[in-house]
Specification:
This protein has helices at about 5-25, 35-45, 50-65, 70-75, 75-85, 90-105, 115-120, 125-135, 145-155, 165-180, 185-195, 215-220, 280-295, 350-365, 370-375; strands at about 235-245, 250-255, 270, 270-275, 295-310, 315-325, 335-340. The protein contains 15 helices and 7 strands. The chain has 2 domains: about 5-225, Hypothetical protein, domain 2 (Endonuclease III, domain 1); about 235-375, Nucleoside Triphosphate Pyrophosphohydrolase (Alpha-Beta Complex). It starts with a helix and ends with a helix. A hairpin with a 4-residue loop joins strand 5 and strand 6 (about 315-325). The radius of gyration is 25 Å and the shape is elongated. The relative contact order is 0.10. It is an alpha+beta fold and about 375 residues long. Helix content is about 45%, strand content about 15%. A 4-stranded mixed β-sheet has the order 4-1-6-5, sandwiched between helices.
């Protein structure tokens, strides 16, 4: 943008946006002064694709259990995943655990202050580097997240598709130009806070906006027309089955997913898989258990149906009680197994969908018993 167009915006940032932020900034635990680079880093990773109100209790528990990189690096991955349980996008937890080990080995157990050194760490992309560098170390680097993209798109009434790399580069240049170099952290957080509290995706509160006088979308009275995004393709829907397998000791079989790769890596689950065309749910569960653990099972009563949305698909998960008819559990398409009881599930990290199965099991008046589920034995 030309300097003649940038200058009014820069002036509005200093004279209107920053005072508004000083009055309206939320009291969030990772904003506690003095800023701790570790706390800033963990909060930024947790906040990726996750709402602030969801993150706050997770952040507080996580910092209590792992107060610094050294504690995080020394912890077993299963403990880290357990603290992350229910937050979703578990690759983030595995990545910060890996990065903490690298910090302990090569950086004296602390995040480096140099942006180039931050960028060299695994899992820290341009946004996270800019956030940590500006919030924790005062470097004049501008952040560009979803909130900032939305605010800038409305300020400019930008017709460009914000999903395109060229558009994001244009907006990053604008963020760089509008950054007050003497107040980088405040400028970045003010833009983000404005998007979170006022310039919201739906029904933005334009009368409350400190920048309404320089916002083209507000003048056009079309704020919800921006940002311009290409319509998403229809999200795939998967129907899957899971077995809640009981043994003679009334224990329940759970399996561990591969901890090194794939979705939900390292988490525990009730074993099962996706239904094939023309297959009944009991047949699906029996086939999956044969393929996954090498056991023949009898599939019994339905326990619960769980509906859950992941980032790129949705699932309808049907959980049925079952028992082993022949064979012993093997690790054909899983990394481990355990026999446990419903009061011991807290020892293992599960995904949100499997936590709903656990919720259904705990809602039963009594712990499930093989003899009750399969009275003919």
């Amino acid at each position: 943008m030309s300097s003649s167009k940038i200058q009014p915006l820069r002036s509005a940032v200093r004279r209107r946006l920053l005072p508004w932020f000083a009055r309206n900034a939320r009291d969030l635990p990772w904003r506690a002064e003095p800023r701790r680079p570790y706390a800033v880093w963990i909060s930024e990773i947790m906040l990726q694709q996750t709402r602030v109100d969801t993150v706050v209790p997770y952040f507080q528990r996580f910092l209590t259990r792992f107060p610094g990189p050294a504690a995080l690096a020394a912890a077993p991955l299963q403990d880290v995943l357990k603290l992350w349980e229910g937050l979703g996008y578990y690759s983030r937890a595995r990545q910060i655990h890996k990065t903490a080990k690298l910090l302990a080995r090569d950086h004296g157990g602390e995040l480096p202050a140099d942006p180039a050194a931050l960028a060299a760490l695994p899992g820290l992309g341009p946004y996270t580097v800019a956030a940590v560098a500006s919030f924790a170390f005062g470097h004049p680097l501008a952040v560009l997240d979803g909130n900032v993209i939305r605010v800038f798109s409305r300020l400019l009434a930008l017709p460009d598709d914000v999903g395109l790399p060229a558009t994001k580069k244009k907006l990053q240049r604008l963020a760089d130009e509008l950054l007050l170099r003497d107040k980088p952290a405040a400028t970045n957080e003010a833009w983000m806070e404005l998007g979170a509290l006022v310039c919201t995706p739906r029904q933005p509160c334009c009368p409350d906006c400190p920048l309404r006088g320089v916002c083209r979308a507000a003048k056009l009275k079309t704020p919800e027309a921006y940002p311009n995004k290409k319509k998403k393709m229809k999200v795939p829907h998967k129907i899957v089955g899971a077995a809640v397998i009981l043994n003679a000791k009334n224990q329940i079989l759970i399996a561990q997913r591969n901890p090194e790769k794939g979705m939900l890596a390292g988490l525990w689950e009730f074993p099962g898989g996706k239904i094939a065309e023309g297959e009944t749910m009991p047949a699906c569960i029996a086939r999956e258990l044969k393929e996954e653990m090498g056991i023949a099972i009898d599939v019994g009563p339905h326990l619960v149906t769980v509906h859950h949305a992941y980032s790129h698909f949705t699932i309808e998960l049907h959980a049925h009680f079952a028992r082993i008819r022949a064979g012993r559990p093997r690790h054909l398409e899983c990394s481990g197994h355990a026999w446990t009881t419903r009061d011991k599930f807290a020892d293992f990290p599960f995904s949100k969908a499997d936590l709903e199965i656990i919720r259904a099991l705990r809602a039963l008046p009594e712990p499930p018993r093989l003899r009750d589920v399969f009275p003919e034995i």
